[in-house]
Amino acid sequence: MTFQIQLRTVEDIKRFQTKINGLKIQLFEFQAATLREYANVIILEKIHEKMRNAGFSEKIIDGTILDNIELIGRKKARLYFRSEYFSKTNFDVALAREEGTDRHFIEPLSASSGFDKKPTALHGGSKWPYFSRGHWVEGILALEIVATTVKEMTISLQDEYNRQQNIWISKNLEGIAFAS
Amino acid sequence: MPVEKTTDIDLGADEKTFDDLDKSAQKAIKALEQRDKELKKSIKTAESAEREQKRLESRGGIFQNLESNTSLPSGKAPRDLAALSKEDEKFEKNIRKIQEKIKKDEIAQFGNKSSFLEEILGKQKAENIFNLVKNPVSFLTGIAKAIPFLGGVFAAKEIADFIVDELVKIDAFFKKFVDEAERRTDLVRSRIEQANISAGLTQKIITTASGGADPRTSYNTFQIFNDNQAELEGNFSISNNHGVR
Questions:
Q1: What is the ipTM for the molecules in this complex?
Q2: Judging by beta carbons within 10 Å of its beta carbon (0-12, 13-18, 19+), is residue B129 exposed, middle or buried?
């Protein structure tokens, strides 16, 4: 979208300059707020929705957030989406759901394993009454919900950001600039 | 290690964009102010030209359409408008000298009686005869009647020289006057009429004399002048003194 600016007198131009300075001051605040708001709505909510559909735990969903927004130079902003949930045994569940796991063998815990002083349970469960010699576990399918959704919805976020920026500029230059 | 995915968004406008716009606005302000100055200057020039034109128009008459830098013939302004210059003073002085000389000659010839000129022309006209130089038509009329006689008797050379000098000066003024009058009368004639007049095929006279176009009702002052001298003198205070005495 381009703007057509109509300036007829010196007073018009001076008014335009004042508005431009105002825009310059508010620019960073606008960029950060707009990106966070629309990234949450467009990308993060979509990730949450997909996770729910896939039967993810609410704990994983709650742990999936838009973390930092980092400015790269003057023209780019980098958005960091993070998904994080660790079990009590320090197992990264969110990562396992995102990237999947292979079929693997669960070894029995022992006093010498260093996890706890006495071998109380398997899988880190404190109330598990059994001791085991270990067993095989099937792998989890890699859904890659975060990666694919971020990739898919970036274009929509970019479009929405551009639209919001035009609205913001035209509102601030009301009576001076006309969108064409 | 948690899941971490990034995406980049193009921000579009940045501070530099606004800085550039600001610079452009500054330039535009300068350009507009410059244009404003030039406009005011040209308005001022136009106003002064208009004032000059009004001043010229207020002079009226044949000077109405003269350019401001047009000099009058022989460097002379009309006598009733111009202040007395050195030349004017000299002119007045010459007249006084001639008047004195005539007076002396009169006394020598006829004794110290009432003025000879006063007898001929009447007191008022005698006093004003040389001042009438300022009004060329009356001057010439008066001179035509009075000078042949005076010139033969008194100060003929001085008077002749004086008249020739003054006529040369006035001549240029007259030419200008006649040209201007001709130009103005041409304005009310069509091009065909102008062509006919210049070819000598038709003749048109524009006069201030009252009367119709019909010959029977038209007012011919020349005829009255020749036929009815008494009426002329009675109505118009014109007297023909030629050949009197």
A1: 0.78
A2: buried
* DSSP state, residue A41: I
Contacting residues of B for A14, CB less than 8 Å apart:
25, 29
Q: Which residue, among A85, A86, A87, has the nearest Cα to A125 in the 3D structure?
A: A87
State the Cα–Cα distance between residues B148 and B28, nearest whole angstrom.
82
Q: Which residues of B touch A36 (CB under 8 A)?
A: none
CB spacing of A92 vs B1 below 8 angstroms = yes
Domain ranges of chain B: 27-63, 84-208
Cα–Cα distance measured from residue B139 to residue A111, given in angstroms and rounded to the nearest whole number? 152
What pLDDT digit, counting tens, does each position of B158-217 carry? 666 677 677 777 777 777 777 777 777 777 677 777 777 778 777 666 665 555 555 555
CA distance B10 to chain A (A): 5
Residues of B in contact with A92 (CB under 8 A): 1-2
Inter-chain CB proximity B22 and A17 less than 8 Å: yes
Q: What is the DSSP letter of B66?
A: -
For residue A136, which amino acid is it?
Answer: W
List CB contacts (< 8 A) between B37 and chain A: none
The candidate with the shortest Cα–Cα distance to A177, out of A9, A11, A21, A20, is A20
Q: Is B231 exposed, middle or buried (0-12, 13-18, 19+ CB in 10 A)?
A: exposed
Q: Which of A16, A74, A161 sits opposite B14 (nearest CB)?
A: A74
- Sorted by where each begins, the domain ranges of chain A are 3-101+145-179, 102-139
- Provide, rounded to the nearest whole percent, the portion of chain B with pLDDT above 90: 1
